[in-house]
Design a protein that fits this description.
heterodimer, A: Serine Threonine Protein Phosphatase 5, Tetratricopeptide repeat, two-stranded antiparallel sheet, globular, B: 993 residues, mainly beta, Immunoglobulin-like, Maltoporin, Chain A, 22-stranded antiparallel β-barrel, 11 helices, 51 strands
Chain lengths: 442, 993
């Protein structure tokens, strides 16, 4: 019997050792923690953080384009699994835009996610001594890039909520700035861009990180500065500040050449599992009532004969119907899962140049519009050159040139012409702006 | 003493000998203890009442005990038998027959981590389910599926009808809003994993897209692996008042499972085979089409196709084609048990093979168990439990999507004249009205989960010291639960939605590999002491340690090469790895006092620390206290009173619920853009100071027993408050985060549980056992520190849950014509008004007939299957007019007209009455089989049984019991084109030899 007792005591003491009471503490095993970058930021870290901007700026961009495209009556979005594209966005029946539904909450929060990613980069750059890793110029260039991204993302959200405004100062998550008016927001965005421009100008020869191919040709501080100015030109146009538009365009990559419509910066997409596929691509064969972007019929009927830009749409074998909406053309602006989506490109700059010149120099405006017409295979503009006629023509060209790039609704709104957009069903409405998301607690 | 009266009445208790002899000191009483089949009962305890002097019977049931003082009362007890007291006046031969316990009152229930208490002395309403109740009526598909209707206080809900489980068990209402709500499962001392890991279907379904961020893959939960045939007993600690000894993991309750063990004696063999089939409980049918309706809804071209198909007899009922299969079921079980004085064993093997009601779905499981007990000497016992499980489930492709690809969604867009069958070359046509052809999807995809799992547990009991009045025992325990799980989701490139021409990904192969290891170690000391006047103290102290380690790797490949499914044979590959590590350490101490079974009091405390807390090495304390008064033991009633038991009890306890893993951190996730790596914030902000949720439960009640325990009543009322609720609160999205983890609220559950067990008839030939339980729970958010928010469904347009102070956490609100001050109209609540279970077992001679009925009154669902069918013009009641208050619109048009106006039509009553289980058996006894194989067969049981044979509900879809978002949430009852549930018919034969 004693042997058992002996064996037991041995076993019990082994068990007691194993059952020691100290518990190990773990960090986040699956993801990089934010705290990890607060000191000793390396060049590799900055590359990853900037890479985050390239990624998160693309998230939910498809919803943004559907929001602007559907309300701007560029197309109808059919979805078998979500009826709200054809009810709420078109104002079908008595439906209105909800303040807690994906069409506003998803793109809104995705844009502010990028703003936060950018603000964290600015924090990390500002809160530690980086002289061992980076030159001052490299730090400045990175700041300029982050500020440009922040400004652009804020602009996209303002495009959705318009007169409802946005929060401009969100650098401290625990102490958010107030919602500001559209005017104040545009001014704030412009000054972010101008600060970014100064940083980029002091940014030396090269960035300390690499860019995706969508930024090819604009991946040095000096060339990215042209992108910054191009975006500032768009903001100035929204402000109606023609002089500023022309001055920003001066420093942008504007090129008044009918052969060069596509120079610019783009979002990249791919089927790589860690990336995103182009959310705007639905093939003709893959189009059914359950999944479709059907072109608003007036886009075809209003088009001028021979307009080469009609290649942005494709006719189906048979019409597709959902919820009393019908059409037989689909949006084919984007032709594969890995097609790029423009952020800003030369065709828009030429149109901004034309727009600003309508009041300043109508002849130059007509010249610029003719460059667009030429590129679309159309003859020169022959209409009247009064301000109204030229604005009509400019909006017409913008409608076809920038189809499915998120402009039509905003253009019609800023010229107060939303009532000119066609209604497919008698009870439909054209909404001017999205409500502020519920969870902003406004 | 009550026994004496029973004997005098002599109606149903077996007679035994009682020979009075003149009192002489120091004499020996001996004899044989046997059961009512004349088989010896080894290991039974014989104790002289009022002392700890005792003895046990040997292998052949022989016992011998020395009695110092006569007259004395001998107490005979053994697990599973009614305790018997016999008065002796001197040394004699006393043969005793023990009755198998019928009412379950003699069983023991858990009160400490290492100790149990007689149920009659328990201060908590602990539910207990025997093997007979678990599997006696019909073999259940999974263990958790066998709990329906069998005890008060458990809400058992199936998430989908897919083979291989997917069931949630919730005890006493909502125990957490966004944390774990599934009970802790402990099998033979081993903490077992019950996680459900997604197979990566989301790549194809896109369900976690715009409307809801929740993954809707609906995998099965791992408790489904356990084999119900192996289980001897399940005890359910429903709330903190009973479960406080399990501390920081016990807030959702604890399910303690004990498996079968060998008994000394003749080796017993059992073979059983069940064969049958399953079929859908409720198919909806096809819309009542005619030419005009087709023309109105689908246009002229469709009307022509309809006419052509009608005249050629080619209209197809695709619902029946897909869900109309009869799935073949086969369950084979073989077990043997036996052993000698020192070593006892139980060994069993079970093989299940079940086909689903959809082609290419099914479930296969093999489970092998070996349980050993060894007693090398009187003062030491070892016991070992080991279980190996292999299972494989093919679950099909159902539930919500955003891409029109799941079979369920595709079916809502399918009309009888659509041509979907493959041609002679096996080529499937593209669906003219949808992105996927459901027949092709059904036939070509794979969605499989395979498990290899080992669960082992060992316990050692050592009697360190033993005397008449006190004893000290050391208990050491260890357990291991290890499994490897493989998930395979394969969508080959010929599928309509995978073709590149249709914008597809050219084939998807998603392969997951999960390694999970939990192990736990514990050591306890138990000291018992009895005073002269029979006041018994039992003290226990112990330490526990638990380790959890899970690694999930999911590889998703798209753009497959030829018909390869290996993930390297693909154009694009994505990898996702998720690790989970947790260490817990704790101690506990408990003191129990028992004064002559009249007053039983317990106080205890558990202290826990865990790596899951913000401060890993801070101890959290979980106290408990309880008191039971057995008024019947006080002698208020005469010995022949009808009162057998009158107990009042009250218990209080606290338990915890950890923050979700990862809630402590604010982190980035990694992505790439055109090959450039980047990290972007995760939208949920963590909080390093987050505290565990804490549940405080007070329960009180009474247990009554009359007429020789043929009528038992139990009533319990409980109040439980859950404080420090961990919520993913909405954060202003302009912060860059959409949500944050906070401790921000308090939840209260109040409820009542009643149960009645009766034996209304008991004669030699006929006996009838009846059990009825009733329970009702009401939940309310009593405090919410953050603004009210919507959660758990698809937004207010379609009906959503809403967390709001002063309301039930499971209220369903939506947009509507008469909104309240919060802007929403309340349309319902997913919590049932009450639930009832009804169990009946009737035995007449060799025939027995048993039933389990379950009644769920009220409780609402959000039914979106019907809406999706309406939008496609295919719902079965599209043209029926009974919803529109004006009586103008058909139901389909009416529901669509309400979209954007009111969510009322999507919220439906999900109450039901079901015949959960039915069994009819005939038993051939050994006498009848005396000439078969030399009389070597003890009994043969033959019969028919079924599950869900009768289902009564108003709900307008396949089954009101559903959860699109899986089990670990209180927001069940959202339906989006699920796998329909099925009923089972089985023919059973069991041979004991």
């Amino acid at each position: 019997m004693k042997e058992y007792i002996y064996k037991f005591l041995v076993f019990a003491s082994v068990a007691a050792v194993m059952v020691s009471c100290e518990v190990q503490e773990f960090s986040d095993l699956n993801n990089a923690e934010v705290d990890a970058f607060e000191d000793n930021l390396t060049r590799g870290d900055l590359q990853d953080l900037v890479g985050g901007l390239f990624y998160s700026s693309r998230v939910n961009i498809g919803t943004y384009l559907d929001d602007t495209g559907v309300i701007g009556r560029e197309w109808f979005r059919f979805s078998g699994s979500d009826p709200r594209f054809t009810t709420d966005l078109l104002g079908g029946g008595s439906a209105i835009l909800d303040n807690n539904t994906f069409y506003i909450t998803n793109p809104w929060s995705a844009r502010y996610r990028t703003v936060k990613n950018g603000n964290l980069i600015l924090d990390f750059l500002g809160s530690q001594d980086l002289s061992a890793q980076f030159t001052d110029q490299e730090v400045s260039a990175a700041r300029g890039l982050a500020k440009t991204f922040i400004a652009y993302e804020l602009l996209l959200n303002l495009n959705l909520t318009d007169e409802n405004g946005i929060r401009l100062d969100v650098s401290d998550a625990n102490n958010l700035g107030p919602f500001v008016s559209k005017t104040e927001a545009l001014a704030g965005i412009r000054s972010f861009l101008e600060e970014g421009a100064t940083d980029l100008a002091n940014g030396g020869e090269a960035f300390s990180f690499i860019f995706p191919s969508g930024f090819a040709g604009f991946d040095t501080p000096s060339t990215f500065l042209q992108v910054n100015n191009a975006i500032a030109a768009r903001v100035a146009a929204y402000q109606g500040d023609n002089e500023a538009v022309l001055s920003f365009l001066e420093d942008s990559f504007l090129n008044l050449d009918p052969q060069d419509m596509d120079t610019g910066v783009y979002y990249n997409f791919s089927e790589d599992q860690n990336s995103l596929v182009n959310p705007m691509f639905i093939s003709a064969n893959g189009t059914t009532a359950a999944q479709a972007r059907i072109v608003e019929p007036s886009f075809i009927s209003d088009a001028m004969a021979g307009d080469g830009r009609l290649s942005k749409i494709v006719q189906l074998e048979a019409p597709v119907t959902l919820d009393d909406l019908v059409g037989d053309h689909i949006v084919f602006r984007y032709q594969s899962n890995s097609d790029v989506i423009p952020i800003i490109r030369n065709e828009e700059l030429i149109l901004l140049y034309a727009e600003a010149n309508i009041a300043v120099d109508p002849t130059e405006a007509v010249n610029a519009l003719n460059i667009i017409r030429e590129s679309a295979g159309l003859g020169a503009y022959t209409g009247a050159t009064d301000e109204n006629s030229l604005t009509d023509e400019m909006l017409m060209q913008r409608r076809y040139s920038l189809f499915a790039e998120g402009h039509r609704w905003i253009d019609m709104r800023r010229f107060d012409r939303l009532d000119e957009l066609p209604l497919a069903r008698p009870d439909d409405d054209v909404f001017a702006m999205f409500p502020i998301p519920l969870t902003e607690n406004q | 003493m009550k026994m004496k009266r029973a004997i005098l009445r002599g109606t149903y208790f077996f007679m035994f000998l009682l020979v009075p002899i003149v009192a002489v000191s120091q004499e020996t009483v001996s004899g044989v203890i046997s059961d009512n089949n004349d088989l010896p009962v080894p290991g039974a305890n014989v104790v002289i009442k009022g002392t700890t002097n005792g003895s046990t019977s040997d292998f052949d049931g022989n016992y011998e005990i020395v009695v110092n003082e006569f007259p004395a009362t001998l107490v005979f007890s053994s697990l599973g038998y009614t305790t018997k007291e016999v008065q002796v006046t001197g040394g004699t031969i006393l043969n005793v027959t023990m009755e198998e316990s019928v009412t379950g009152l003699e069983e023991v229930v858990v009160t400490g981590l290492a100790t149990t208490i007689k149920r009659t002395n328990a201060a908590n309403a602990v539910a207990s389910i025997s093997a007979e109740a678990l599997t006696g009526t019909t073999p259940p598909p999974t263990l958790d599926g066998a709990l329906y209707g069998k005890f008060a206080g458990a809400i058992v809900n199936s998430n989908s009808g897919a083979p291989g489980g997917g069931i949630s068990v919730k005890l006493r209402g909502a125990t957490s809003l966004q944390g774990n709500v599934q009970p802790l499962y402990i099998i033979d001392g081993v903490y077992v994993d019950n996680s459900a890991t997604a197979a990566g279907l989301n790549v194809v379904s896109g369900a976690a897209g715009q409307g809801s961020s929740s993954n809707q893959d609906n995998p099965s939960n791992r408790i489904a692996d356990l084999n119900p045939e192996d289980i001897a007993n399940i005890e359910i600690l429903k709330g903190a008042s009973a479960a406080a000894i399990y501390g920081s993991r016990a807030a959702a309750g604890v399910v303690i499972i004990t498996t079968k063990r060998g008994k000394a004696g003749k080796t017993k063999f059992k073979f059983s085979q069940s064969t049958g089939w399953s079929q859908a409980i409720n198919l909806l049918g096809v819309r009542d089409y005619n030419e005009q309706r087709v023309r109105d809804t689908f246009g002229d071209a469709a009307a022509d196709e309809y006419n052509a198909a009608l005249s050629s007899g080619n209209l197809v009922d695709y619902e029946d084609e897909i869900y109309g299969e009869n799935g073949v079921i086969s369950i084979t079980n073989f077990s043997m048990s036996g052993g000698g004085d020192k070593t006892k064993f139980y060994a069993g093997v079970t093989h299940n093979n079940e086909d689903g009601i959809v082609k290419n779905t099914g479930y296969e499981k093999t489970s092998v168990r070996l349980n050993l007990d060894h007693r090398p000497a009187d003062f030491v016992r070892f016991s070992l439990s080991s279980n190996y499980i292999y299972s494989s489930a093919d679950r099909g492709f159902f539930n919500n999507d955003n891409t029109g690809t799941t079979i369920g969604i595709a079916l809502t867009a399918t009309r009888p004249w659509d041509k979907l069958y493959p041609n002679e070359d096996g080529i499937y046509p593209d669906h003219p009205n949808n992105t996927s052809n459901p027949l092709q999807t059904r036939d070509l995809i794979t969605n499989n989960e395979k498990i290899n799992r080992i669960i082992m547990g060992g316990t050692t009991n050592l009697d360190i010291y033993r005397s008449d009045r006190s004893n000290l025992e050391l208990i050491l325990r260890g357990g291991l639960d290890f499994y490897g799980q493989q998930t395979r989701a394969i969508f080959p490139k010929p599928l309509q939605f995978q073709k590149i021409a249709n914008g597809g990904l050219n084939g998807v192969s998603s392969q997951g590999d999960i390694q999970n290891k939990n192990y736990n170690l514990s050591a306890f000391l138990v000291h018992g002491y009895t005073t002269e006047n029979n006041l018994n103290f039992r003290t226990q102290v112990g330490i526990t340690r638990e380790y959890f380690d899970q690694n999930v790797e999911l590889i998703t490949a798209t753009g497959l090469v030829a018909s390869e499914t290996n993930v390297d044979q693909a154009a694009n590959t994505g990898v996702n790895q998720t690790r989970l590590l947790q260490q817990d350490s704790g101690f506990f101490a408990q003191e129990e006092l028992n004064y002559q079974d009249k007053v039983i009091a317990t106080v205890g405390v558990r202290g826990d620390k865990s790596s899951n807390n913000g401060d890993a090495n801070k101890l959290s304390y979980y106290p408990k206290a309880s008191l039971a008064l057995s008024l019947n033991e006080f002698g208020f009633w005469k010995q022949d009173s009808v009162w057998d038991q009158f107990k009042l009890r009250i218990a209080y306890g606290e338990a915890g619920n950890f923050p979700p893993f990862g809630a402590l951190f604010t982190s980035y996730n990694a992505f790439s853009t055109d090959g450039t790596l980047g990290i972007s914030l995760i939208g949920v902000r963590g909080d390093a100071d987050l505290e565990s949720e804490r549940q405080k439960e007070l329960e009180f009640g009474t247990d009554l027993s009359f007429f020789d325990r043929r009528l038992n009543l139990s009533a319990t009322y409980y109040i439980k408050n859950i404080d420090n609720l961990i919520l993913q609160a909405a954060l202003e999205p302009s912060t860059g985060f959409t949500q944050q983890f906070v401790n921000a609220g308090e939840l209260q559950n109040k409820g009542i549980e009643l149960s009645l067990d009766a034996i209304p008839v008991q004669t030699e030939n006929l006996s009838w056992n009846l059990g009825i339980n009733f329970f009702k729970n009401t939940s309310e958010i009593t405090r919410l520190d953050i603004p009210a928010f919507n959660i758990g469904a698809f937004g207010a347009t379609l009906g959503t849950f809403r967390i709001e102070e002063g309301s039930s956490p499971t209220q369903i609100v939506g947009i509507g014509p008469n909104p309240g001050p919060n802007g929403f109209q309340t349309f319902g609540n997913s919590e049932a008004d009450f639930q009832m279970g009804f169990n009946s077992n009737l035995k007449y001679k060799n025939i027995d007939f048993s039933m389990v009925w379950q009644w769920k009154q009220g409780g609402d669902n959000i039914n979106l299957t019907t809406l999706l069918s309406d939008l496609n013009g295919t719902s079965h009641d599209y043209d029926t007019i009974d919803l529109d208050p004006d009586g103008v619109l058909g139901n389909g048009d009416y529901r669509v007209s309400q979209l954007g106006q009111s969510a009322r039509v999507f919220v439906e009553d999900a109450g039901y009455v079901r015949l959960r289980e039915l069994g009819v058996y005939y038993t051939l006894t050994s006498e009848m089989l005396s000439n078969v194989i030399g009389g070597g067969i003890d009994s043969i049981r033959l019969g028919f049984s079924g599950t869900n044979l009768i289902n009564i509900f108003d709900y307008n879809s396949y089954d009101p019991e559903i959860s699109n978002f899986g089990g670990n949430t209180i927001f069940t009852g959202v339906e989006v084109t699920p796998f329909p549930s099925s009923k089972r018919f089985l023919f059973n034969v069991a041979v004991n030899f």
